Amino acid sequence: MDLSLDIAIAMVAIVPFLAAAVAPFIHRVAGAATGWVLAIVPATIFVFLWGFVGPVSEGRFVSAGIDWVPSYGLTLSFFVDGLALMFALAISGIGTFILIYSGSYLKGHPHQGRFLAFITAFMGAMLGLVLSDNVLGLFLFWELTSVTSFLLIGFDHGREKARRAAIQAIVVTGAGGLALLLAALLLNRLFGVWDISAMIGSGLDLRGHGAYGLVLGLVLLAAFTKSAQFPFHFWLPNAMEAPTPVSAFLHSATMVQGGVYLLARTTPLLGGTDAWFVILVTFGGFTLIWGALAAIRQTDMKQMLAQTTLASLGLLVLLIGLGTEAAFLAMALYFIAHALYKAGLFLTVGIIDHGTGTKDITRLGGLRDPMTATFMAAILGGLGMIGLPPLVSYIAKEEMYLALASGDPLSLAILLVLVVGNGLLAAVGLAIMIRPFMGPLRETPHPPHEGDVASLSGPLVFGTIGVLGGIAAVWLGESLVAPAASSIANVAYESHIKLIVDPRSVLFWLSILTWAVAGLAYWRLDALRAGLQRLAAAPRWSFDQGFDAVMFGLVRGAAALTRLLHHGRLELYLVVFFIALAVALLAPLYLLDGLPALPPMPDLTFYEWGVMAVAVAGVVTVVVARRRLFAILALGIQGLAIALLFMLFGAPDLAFTQFMVEILSVVILTLVMTRLRLDHEDPRPLEDFARDGMIALLCGVGVTLLMLRVVSLPFEDRLSAFFATYSAEIAHGRNIVNVILVDFRGLDTLGEISVVMAAGIAILALIRSQKRPAPPEQPLVAPSGDASRSAP
């Protein structure tokens, strides 16, 4: 691989972050034109990626990588195949017009530069996600999409609803991110590599492995939370608190499509099993119907579109779960169609809201004359949502029906779900396309006015591409759709995509049935909405309220646990700590049959026995001491005994260090205790004495047994040999102990010194803050009675 190509592909994911870093500064210079300037970045990325369409359509792929953590064999690798290319082109292409639109939509906003930085970084995170081959790199960009979406959803942080929606989004998707991290680690453990392409090509069949269920559950949890599948669907409609450009980008080509991409990318590893089929088809189908009905219930057009995104995501998940060639082709084709019409419709709704002051569909009408260009954009987007020929969405709908043309009862049941779901989505498209524009002009919060070129360019271009894509369906199928489907299945597919309107085909009549459902639902839209609103008001519990209950319980539980563990009683802290220490020392030795044999009685000289006697005397003195000063001085005896042992066994440097430490400790303790009454006795109840004594004995026995176990093992001299060999050669010192302290573990020593210094400063401040007794007051009149002599 050419190094320049490696760098260029890596820069596709990195350059948007660099642009985000300078976006506020560009805004200061370019002002209202900042959106156009920043749009150069995704436009350039789109043109660069477009150059891969030819090689990818021929069955080739491009991989690239740069060193990430070489010591651990980690490379930030990227992979451009049909699936990644389709997603990346959608992200960069739609992102170009989103930035242009944002410059106009937020014109005059005091934080427009910050917003453009956030949304540019959001685009970079999504590009990195779909292009990553390294599963840890994919997780990194996955989390960056959550963080940047949090910033965008909560951009208007002065409103409580925006803050709550942002927190809800990052909590739900963050939980899925943790599941993805664990899945990535498990996959690396199973396959021995980090790259997804290497896992797919390894030949290991994960489906028959014992860990398949665990990996499948973690991947599905990550994908379902990201793509808002039931029961994690509730965060996505609340994310409409974000500005309209965010909603358009979030729902069409970024963020929520991350879960769909993950399912598609891992299909060669996890797909093809009964569990995969049942879970994806069941949850995808349920989410499709749930989202479609919820969209009918809404009157806010952004909420209507948000709920249809739920439905469309469920449809994409269902198609991936079917696992057939036609289903994969339909999934890729529908992704393109949905990205185009959903981005266009969201931007159109933003223009209506900006031009009239409301996005409530029941308060709008007659806008076709004052907002003609917006009406044209709404028609293009609405027709795409309805799926009429010659739009690409029509071909996608027929392809998904083809995937269920086997005629068996299960396929017919799933087909019924698709027809009803698509029909309800088409009814929403009809409502947004017709109701705000037809009929008499209705009064709005301010007189309607048309959007500018920056606002209208995106919706009109997306709608036009939707039409041209259907007309050029053969080229689209061969260049983008078939390579993407082939990447999902890891099997080379030939495209049969073409625009056909054949009344003799059963697929055509299924489309007619879908439009009939749409017409009926639109005809009775107000009645359906009223009925669904009554049903929604009946339950006293919802998933949204459930999230609030969980968060409230989490906060209250954390507060209770904090009060339990952080009660402020130092004595209990020490008791718990040393009990845990005793358990940590003794339990493994007992449970793992690691108790050492008792050593023989040592053959010591009289002065060595003397040192031992000093240590024992010090222990007894500390235990029986009643006065504080006496206990402090007795405590120093232990350090003295240890220092003597070091000296007797040939470690004078350590003995000297121990002497200094003990002297310093005793001096510091004594100085601190001067603030207290040193002659005061500390009476201890018998139960406290027995408790603390037992804990101390257990800790002492545990340390002793552990040391005996360690010394009973064969001596490993590699570390000793290393220090003996390299102390003089590398550190230029012959005193090995000093070299270890100063050079090999110099940072550790520096840290210890810093801690001692900080403690010393704190103690000095404590001593100096001690209140001194005030001098006795002098009499105001001299004792001699001379009133003329005043006291000083």
TrEMBL record:
GO terms for biological process: monoatomic ion transport. Its main location: membrane. One of its GO terms (cellular component) is plasma membrane. Residues 614-677 form the MrpA C-terminal/MbhD domain. Residues 690-775 form the MrpA C-terminal/MbhE domain. The keyword Transit peptide does not apply. Keywords: Antiport, Cell membrane, Ion transport, Membrane, Transmembrane, Transmembrane helix, Transport. NCBIfam families: PRK12647.1 (NF009287). This is Multisubunit sodium/proton antiporter, MrpA subunit (TC 2.A.63.1). It comes from Devosia enhydra.
